[in-house]
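MODEL INPUT / OUTPUT PAIR
PAIR INDEX: 1
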Amino acid sequence: MSVAIRVIPCLDVKDGRVVKGVNFKGLRDAGDPVELARRYDEQGADEITFLDVSASSEARSTMMEVVSRTAEQVFVPLTVGGGVRSVEDVDRLLRAGADKVGINTAAIHRPELLTEVAERFGNQVLVLSVDARRCPPGVSTPSGYEVTTHGGSRSTGLDAVAWAVRAATMGAGEILLNSMDADGVTGGFDLEMLDAVREVVTVPLIASGGAGQAEDFAAAADHGADAVLAASVFHYGTLTISQAKDALRSAGHPVR
């Protein structure tokens, strides 16, 4: 029996508020994270993802409080990421109520962190967040995609597909593949990038960046996504969780 495709709203949190922009620029307020999480839980979201987009020490203390308040009120898994640098950071987030923890930049600087987290907590709690883009002029990778950091503003020169493979072998239980080119543009997921990563990794793959209409979710699932994540279309009422699931169901994909 096929595993259901998960629909995941993403809440980018800055200074205790949900924000959203285009390509991580022009951020505007989208509401209270606890209230939005509660609403998405009621609407049938399969999971909820929080990303601390400022990742300063002050914002992170706010994030801990947001996670704790949310965990008390919603009944779906919470994934929390942003500024996670150590096993101790993961421990604190799990104790605050997170079910999974997303790691991005710290794993690029020290890949061994992935193994350390997986060995201590199990790989089911570890989500590798990959902010990838098509290589700009002057950058070349075998796949044509590179990993970026700091909201897509910093080039790493790291091949995105090769990094996904390495991370999976080191303990990442899931990969959140976010297209920085498509983020907030609502023109559809980067299906070619999904294909490239799906071809070489077996861990669950979460498609992120670009959802604009219900059919985009089905297209991502057609190209191997195990879960589909979106922000703007849900926050601003363009689409509901039900509409995304209806589109997946109509395309023959099982949903909860």
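PAIR INDEX: 2
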Amino acid sequence: MKGKIMEERIGILVFGAVFVDIKGYPFSLYRPDGRNAGKVVKVHGGVSRNIVEDIANVELRPTFISVVDKDAIGEEVVQKLKRHKVNTNYIRRIEGGLGTWLAIFDTEGELRGSISQRPDLSKLEEVLSEQGDSLFSRCDSVIVEIDMDSKLLKQIFQLAEKYNKKVYAAVSNMSIALERRDLLKTTACIVCNQQEAGMLFSEDFEEMNLEEMASSLSSYVVKAQFPQMIMTLGSQGAIYAEQNGHFGHCKAKKVHVIDTAGAGDAFFAGVAMGLTYGKNMMEACEIGTKLAASVLGTSENVNPRFLPEELGLKSLEA
């Protein structure tokens, strides 16, 4: 068994939690202070889980390091990821391994409120202690939620440094991420939205036009010594900045929005794939923008199937 695992393709390593997303959609105008008739759906979610499936849907065979419950739902999550060609050998089954995200959307597909319950990921420390060297020596790059437990993050970043692997940081909770600015400096690229970037730099970007935002973001990235950063702007697309002072703007794709959930994760996945496999920042943002648009037009949390060539990427051997 050990010999078999050593031969497996690792691809991009993705660390993070799995959630069950419970999403409500009103049939008519949403009223926060009243009863709303509508539909309620349950889907597999979680930032990292969405990202790893997004990558797998571009046929790039990623590896997911996570935990799930010891029940039928946990098994369903694992089997779905396997069908999408995600390497699930390092997912551990524990009590309370699944998180829950409860969300309400309005008729325009915009999130109006949510509550989340995060699972305990400490079991992953054992995975890294036992197999971290093997995983990191064979992976193409690493994706983490930067607001995970600090002890676990320290293990991940140490292994990434040891094997010279780039780490891409997704932000789920900027309040926690603010406490990890030292780690942000060692990531290959940070991706967050306009509000989160405002929290990170104590700046009101909403009062600026695109040119002012791009110039200001560039200045902050250089001063903070962040290698690369992308700030998403919803319908306005995204702006990016690099430590060398270069910055730019990537326009959003026009699409009829049904549900915004998962679009940011798809954008991140596209950026990480692009940068991992040789694209520059503008090209990576273009990939992310295309994947995000494919999610906005559905009630799914992940992008549909693409061939790597459709995104300007090369197919990887299985």
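PAIR 2 NOTE: Residues 46-95+121-306 form a domain with the UDP-N-acetylmuramoyl-L-alanine:D-glutamate ligase fold (CATH 3.40.1190.20).
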